Amino acid sequence: MPETTELSEAEAGLSFDLTDRPWVPVQWLDRTEDELSLSEVFTQAARLRRLAGDLPTQEFALLRLLLAVAHDAFDGPRTIDDWADLWADPDCFATVPAYLARHRQRFDLLHPTAPFFQVVGLHTAKGEVFSLNRIVADVPNGEPFFTSRMPDVARLGFAEATRWVVHAHAYDTSGIKTGVEGDDRVKGGKVYPQGVGWAGTLGGVFAEGNDLRETLLLNLIAADTSGIRFGQGDMPAWRREPCGPGATGRLRPSGVRDLYTWQTRRLRLHFKADGVHGVVLGYGDPLTPHNMHSYEPMTGWRRSPAQEKKRGEPVVYLPQEHDPARSAWRGLAALISNPITGAQSAEAAARLRPGVFEWIARLVTEGELDKGFLIRARVVGPVYGTQQSVIDEVVNDHLSMGVVLLHQRDREYAQQAIDAVADAEAAVRTLGDLASDLARAVGADPDPAKDIARDLGFGALDGLYPIWLRELTDEADPYEYRTVWQRRVYRCVIGLGERLLTHAGDAAWEGRTVESKTGTEWLNSALADGWFRSRLSKALGDPFPTAPPTDEPAGPPSGTHPAGPDFSPKVPA
Binning pLDDT at 50, 70 and 90, where does residue 186 land? Predict the structure, then answer.
C-alpha cells in the first residue's frame, strides 16, 4: 500500500557518495565478487574480470554508465589514434577519479537538491510513496520473477538501491503509472503508457575482453567513427540541469554520453538512515526506436517494411531484439555480417550489425587489434510480458570469437563462420524430418515430434559450435576447417537420429501406409532412416565421400557413428 511520507531534516542531511562508497558489483580475476566505488572500478579495472550485476540487464546498464563516465572524462576518444594510446597505456583510466571528484555533488544518491538520477521533491497529488517492487526487476508487478523477495521489497541498502535506480532508467516496464505533480501528461491522476526504458527496446550487445579494462576500451568508440553521431554538445545527465517532473521535450540524444544516461523515468527514493524504503516513479523522456541506428551502437538493427509503409518513409530500421529460444551462435550473422550498402547496392541493407562491432571491425582492419585477438560477444536483453508491463525473462548469452571475423576486407573467415551456422540449421532440419517421418510411420501427429527433435539437435550443437568458432581463428584455411565442422555436425546429428530410431520402437519398424505426393506408400523406420541419411549428407555437402577419419572428434557420447551415409533408398521429392 502507498504511504504518505516526507523526509525529515535528519534524513535530508544524509549522503551516499557514489564516487567513493562501494556499490558497483564486480568480479575479480580470481572470480571472487566484491562491491567497489566508481573511482575504484576505474583504478582497478585491469584486475577485474567483469561487472557482476544482480541481473544481466543490470550489468548492461552499469556498463553503459561507466562508458558515459569514460567518454566524458577523456572528452573522447576523438580519433582512433587517441584510442590506440589508451589501449597501449596500462593505467589509461588513472585520470578518471579526478573527473569524478569534480562532479562529486551530482553523484550523491541522497543529495538534498540534485540526487543522482532522481528528481528532488517528486510527488503525486496525494503524496503517495510506493513499494520498491516498482524498481526492483526481480519482483515485477504481478507474479514475482524470482521468489527471494516475496511478497514485497520492504527496504534496500543504498548500494543496491543505486543499482536499481540505474536499471529503472534503462529497463523499467511500461503500463499505466500514477501521475506526478508538474507533469502535463497526467490525465485523471494517471499517465498512460509511454514505453519501456530505452535499453529495454534493444537487443543489447557488447564486446567483452579479458578484463574490465579491455571491455571498457573495446566498447569506447572513437568520435571519428562513421555511422555513429557524436554531437558537439554531447554530455551525460550529471552535467545537465537536473530534470523536473515532466518531459523535457527532447526527442533525440546529442551523442552516446547523453544516450547512455538518458533519463527515461522521473524517480525519487524515500529513505531513512538504515536504507531506502519507498519510491515515487513516473515517466520521463521517452525515445522512439525507429531509425536510431546512427545514435545507438549497442544493438543490431533490422529493416522494417511494415513501419516503412505505416510511416511513409523509404527506410526504417528498428532494434533487433533477442529471441530467447535461439542461442547466440545461431544469430551470428546479425553480429558479423558486413552489409552491402550505398553504391554497391540499390537497396538498403535488411539488417545492420551493432555499431560497437563496426567499431571493432575498424580496429582490426586498421591494425589496432591483432586478427587473432579473442572477444566475447555478450547478448543481454529482457523479454517483456503482457503489454510490456512485466519482465517475463532475461536473455543472457555469449559467444567467443576472433576479431578477424569482423575484418572489413578479409571476409573469408566470417563467411565460413556464417555458412557453418547454415550447415547446422540444415542438419537439424533433417533431424526434424526424421522425427516427423517416424511419427507418421506410427500414425502420430508429426509436428510435435519435429519440434522436439529440432530442440534436441540445437541443444547438442550449442556446445560444439562455440568450440569450433574459437578454433577457426587459428586455422590457415577457413574453407577446409568448415569441412571439419560439417563432419562434426554429421557425427553429432547421425547419433541423435539413431537415438530417435531406437526409441521409435516396433510399431515404427513395422510401419503403415501413408499418403505421399504420388499416392500412397509404405513408411517404416528403415525407409525413414534411409531418407534421413541421404538428406543429412546432402545438407552437409557430402562431408564423408569416403569412410570418416578415425581421429575426427565425435558428437554426443551416446549413439554409434556409422561409416557413412546410405544412399540406397530414394528420397521423395
Answer: very high
Give the whole-angstrom CA distance, residue 367 versus residue 219. Answer: 17
Note whether 382 and 201 are within 8 A (CB).
no
Distance, CA of 148 to CA of 331 (rounded, Å): 33
Buried b (16+ CB within 10 A) or exposed e, 339-350: eeeeeeeeeebe
Residue 273: how many CB atoms within 10 A of its CB? 9
For residue 573, the model assigns a pLDDT of 35
- Say what the pTM is: 0.89
User: How crowded is the C-beta side of 25, counted as CA atoms within 13 Å?
Assistant: 16
Give residue 256's pLDDT.
97
How confident is the model over 419-446, as pLDDT tens digits?
Answer: 999 999 999 999 999 999 999 999 999 9
Contact partners, residue 324, CB within 8 Å, separation at least 6: 383, 393, 395
Amino acid at the residue 535: R
Q: If DSSP codes are grouped into helix, strand and coil, which group holds residue 567?
A: coil
**Contact indicator for 17, 108 with CB cutoff of 8 Å:** yes
> CB-hemisphere CA count at 13 Å for 444?
17
> For the chain, how long is the longest CA-to-CA vector?
88
